[in-house]
Amino acid sequence: MQRRKFIKHSMAGVPIAASLLSTACTSKEVADPKTKRVLVIGAGLSGLAAARQLHEKGFIVTVLEAQNTIGGRLRTNRSTGIAFDEGASWIHGIDGNPMTTLAQQAGMQTYPTVDESRVSYDIGGIKRKAAVYDAAEDELYAILGSLMKQGSNTRSFESVFNAIYPTKANDRLWRFFLSTYVTFDTGDLDKLSSLLYNEGEEYSGVETIATNGYDTIATYLAKGLDIRPGQRVTAIDYSSPIVKITHNGSISEADYVIVTVPLGVLKKESIRFTPMLPASKQVAIRSVGMNCVNKFLLIWEKAFWDDVQYISYTPAVRDKFNYFVNVRKYQPTVNALMTFAYADYARQTETMTDTQVVTEIMAHLRDIYGTGIPEPATLLRTKWQNNEFTFGAYSYTAINTEMTHFDDLAEAIDNRLFFAGEHTHIDYFSTAHGAWLSGIREAGKIIDLL
């Protein structure tokens, strides 16, 4: 499940440089951080990272979280006795990745997932030859490395790809690759920029998946912080040096505010800003895309599937339950498969009942393994698009997105209103490590003001 594995960069995983204190004005009076109030909106990874950094520097930090739990899109469901990560699951490249260190500090247990441990099936349960799969995968990487030369900022990835490769556009294996290797990592192909689809950096090293819950990192970061759950922020007035935040009918004041709500929430204009946000930030909010990926965990009494890490299926409908992660490989006592839906089909699943979802998933599995396989005992699922605290899964480079929009999203206003979140990191947008790095970045901005 290598995210952006097709991207080739000469430098990846370069740490953010430490801020340098200016020595030009030796007579400058340094303010005491213990007199400065910081209000962080959102207890997701970026908010917790910023709050932790500022708290350790002595600032008076309060975190307002609209939900009743912390972690944001680091959300782990343990209702079945196992950890099902509804949001982030993998550390994407462990070498130099800050999540690797955080996971170790937090006690998050991980397992290296091997992309090459896989089997692919076509309609009719026909097992695809590994050489055919591998050849198509290699060709895909070559295409992804050059397609942007034919692209433009106003044309979608889908329109350019279909025009150049019309036969591949209707080939089931290629539809699978475009779904799981492109849509999953980025966003809707008919909205994805044909020019910027492969932007973003990546860390090298193996992929590891959390086995005891990604939210262990959120729990670790939250220790000792003043976090107030169930506080929905509806307005931010930054028209004066003291910022006023309206939440649950009350007003709190702070010297600095860090807004870490997801891009989907900003798109919905769930928070009223006074004065209105700068035009450049409004354009960026509208222009950067917000993908939807939903996850589905199915548990059985006994396993009936191949003993490999990944099982792929190439149905007629793109983005529909075409990839299965074998949970038994990293949870040997658990007979479970995890599958996905992407983009518009992911949104469609949110209108479907559990029974309808299971029926559609089992139709694929029965085509592979026969009609005699049993119904699952348990289904767990996500609904990220209609989640009022996210309105989607993560950001991507849509048509009309410009890379400067990520910097615009991160731009502070008047040295008192700051913005963090994966959608504000120009190199690592759409990732958990991007969210964390953005929180550290904004905390650094505030520290440097003293």
TrEMBL record:
Its UniProt entry gives the catalysed reaction(s) as:
L-tryptophan + O2 = indole-3-acetamide + CO2 + H2O
Identify the stretch annotated as signal peptide in this record: 1-24
Which part of the chain is the Amine oxidase domain?
A: 45-447
Q: Does the keyword ATP-binding apply?
A: no
UniProt pathway annotation: Plant hormone metabolism; auxin biosynthesis
- Which GO annotations describe the biological process of this protein? auxin biosynthetic process
Q: What is the protein name for this chain?
A: Tryptophan 2-monooxygenase
Q: Which organism is it from?
A: Arsenicibacter rosenii
